[in-house]
């Protein structure tokens, strides 16, 4: 089993990988957007590592979910806040766990309701098995092959910890 | 056994939204928190989210309204629902179609929600009782009974300025007898834990049961407004008045109108609210309505987010049969 005990090491690796991806793709001054709640924690940790100039943006994708009529509203999550223009900008979209790909589909839809970005790069702390949509991470901390009954969960924000749980 | 509240489903979630009376504090807080999330949608480039795509909402207005109808319509459209505006004066009820026939016809068009405004108290409950089980009803104001979405948008506006309901003194001023808005506000303020709600107005315009609603009644405006955090002015509803309940508009303004001098008796950071439409120079001075303490236009803006929250909570309820499986 790959080590998930040290989230900081995974974050360092991600930051390095984002930097090199930006270089090869000739992306300068990217914006960073984290997806509530875990993705915002990860983005908060990556943001200073990359020395980004502009404030972090956050997305609450509740209004874009495809399972709204099954799970209803969750009023507790903070609203989206994108304190910048996204038009023609390069965006690094950050989430904690990339699983089915449905959250990222929703996040992309929401970002495009704010404007037309030049590009979007996806960074996920964990990429786990169970993909249902054609969505891949450009940058990841770790890849885990899990069964359907296994769940990976990020707790935080301080300290950030990954927990593997088994459901019955 | 206590009869179940018609507006709640078996899990205690909102299935209709007919009145604030009897709802749990947590339900009201959920509405306010959800509305807080929706409030950012109106400031974006694309002022729309896909939440209610494919749903059809019919606005059934049996009584004139500008603000309420347009903000319901905007709220539904910002949620991507399809909206039908049915102005009853020009529809087939004038050709003798009964209310229930009209309901059946709208159901046959596969509507998911009716927003009802009616001049008779209890109209929204009547609709809720008779609609097909998959349809939700929202009360857009019934007679002098309730106007729950207005009540909630007022609570939202208050919370934006004064986050702690349990530290507030709120005055509701004017024609409380005919005001469905005042009734909804008073229920909401009580449920949210506001320790002191005052009703200020002439004896003829304060309902006999006011004290039982948990309010302190004042007939003297200057005494009642002293040291309050929130002043809610009500519209003088001449169309609902029978007989001579009032001397004259001039005298009403002198006694109960909100002038800068009377407002100065409230706390210095008190906010001034009014559900609209304002009768300038009757309920309040223009300089107060347009002054720095007035949040009247914010109320209109907030109405959209609050109505989006209520519509999406009611229509986003997980299907009960699905859950049982």
Overview in brief:
The complex is a heterodimer of chains A (168) and B (325). By secondary structure, chain A is an alpha/beta fold.
Describe the 3D structure.
The complex is a heterodimer of chains A (168) and B (325). Chain A has 168 residues and is an alpha/beta fold. Chain A has one domain (7-156): 3-Layer(aba) Sandwich (Rossmann fold), CATH 3.40.50. Helix content of chain A is 27%, strand content 27%. Chain A contains four helices and seven strands; from the N terminus they run αβαβαβαββββ. Chain A has helices spanning 7-24, 38-50, 68-71, 102-112, and strands at residues 31-35, 57-59, 90-98, 119-128, 139-144, 150-155, 161-166. In chain A, the strands form two sheets. Chain A has a five-stranded parallel beta sheet. In chain A, helix 1 crosses helix 2 (38-50). The two termini of chain A are 21 Å apart. The relative contact order of chain A is 0.20. In chain B, helix 1 packs across helix 5 (148-161) and helix 5 (148-161) crosses helix 11 (296-315). With 325 residues, chain B is an alpha/beta fold. Chain B has a five-stranded parallel beta sheet with strand order 7-6-5-8-9. A four-stranded parallel beta sheet of chain B has the order 2-1-3-4, with helices on both faces. The longest helix of chain B has 20 residues, at 296-315. The two termini of chain B are 27 Å apart.
């Amino acid at each position: 089993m790959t080590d998930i005990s040290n989230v900081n090491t995974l974050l360092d690796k991600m930051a390095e990988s984002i930097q090199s991806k930006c270089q090869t793709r000739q992306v300068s001054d990217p914006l960073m957007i984290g997806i509530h709640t875990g993705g915002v924690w990860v983005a908060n940790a990556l943001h200073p590592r990359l020395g980004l100039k502009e404030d972090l943006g956050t997305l609450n994708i509740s209004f874009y979910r495809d399972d709204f009529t099954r799970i209803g509203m969750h009023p507790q999550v903070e609203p989206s806040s994108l304190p910048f223009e996204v038009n023609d900008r390069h965006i690094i979209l950050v989430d904690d766990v990339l699983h089915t790909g449905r959250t990222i589909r929703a996040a992309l839809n929401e970002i495009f309701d704010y404007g037309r970005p030049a590009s979007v790069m996806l960074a996920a702390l964990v990429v786990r098995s169970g993909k249902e949509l054609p969505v891949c991470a450009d940058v990841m901390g770790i890849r885990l092959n899990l069964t359907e009954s296994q769940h990976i969960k990020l707790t935080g924000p301080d300290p950030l910890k990954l927990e593997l749980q088994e459901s019955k | 056994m206590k009869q179940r509240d018609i507006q709640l489903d078996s899990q205690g979630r909102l299935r209709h939204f007919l009145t604030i009376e009897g709802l749990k504090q947590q339900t009201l807080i959920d509405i306010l928190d959800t509305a807080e999330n929706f409030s950012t949608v109106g400031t974006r480039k694309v002022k729309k989210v896909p939440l209610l795509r494919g749903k059809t909402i019919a606005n059934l207005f049996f009584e004139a309204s500008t603000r309420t109808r347009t903000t319901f319509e905007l709220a539904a459209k910002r949620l991507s629902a399809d909206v039908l505006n049915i102005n009853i004066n020009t529809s087939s009820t004038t050709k003798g179609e009964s209310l229930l026939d009209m309901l059946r016809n709208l159901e046959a068009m596969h509507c998911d929600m009716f927003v009802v405004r009616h001049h008779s108290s209890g109209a929204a409950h009547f609709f809720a009782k008779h609609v097909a089980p998959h349809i939700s009803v929202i009360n857009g104001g019934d007679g002098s009974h309730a106007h729950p979405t207005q009540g909630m948008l007022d609570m939202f506006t208050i919370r934006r300025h004064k986050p702690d309901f349990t530290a507030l003194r709120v005055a509701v001023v004017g024609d409380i007898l005919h005001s469905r808005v005042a009734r909804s506000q008073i229920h909401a303020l009580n449920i949210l834990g506001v320790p002191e709600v005052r009703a200020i107005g002439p004896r003829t315009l304060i309902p006999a049961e006011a004290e039982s609603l948990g309010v302190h009644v004042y007939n003297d405006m200057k005494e009642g407004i002293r040291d309050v955090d929130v002043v809610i002015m009500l519209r003088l509803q001449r169309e609902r008045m029978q007989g001579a309940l009032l001397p004259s508009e001039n005298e009403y303004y002198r006694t109960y109108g909100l002038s800068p001098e009377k407002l100065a008796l409230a706390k210095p950071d008190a906010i001034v609210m009014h559900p609209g439409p304002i009768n300038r120079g009757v309920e309040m001075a223009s300089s107060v309505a347009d002054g720095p303490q007035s949040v009247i236009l914010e109320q209109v803006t907030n109405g959209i987010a609050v109505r989006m929250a209520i519509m999406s909570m009611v229509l986003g309820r997980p299907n009960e049969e699905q859950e049982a499986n």
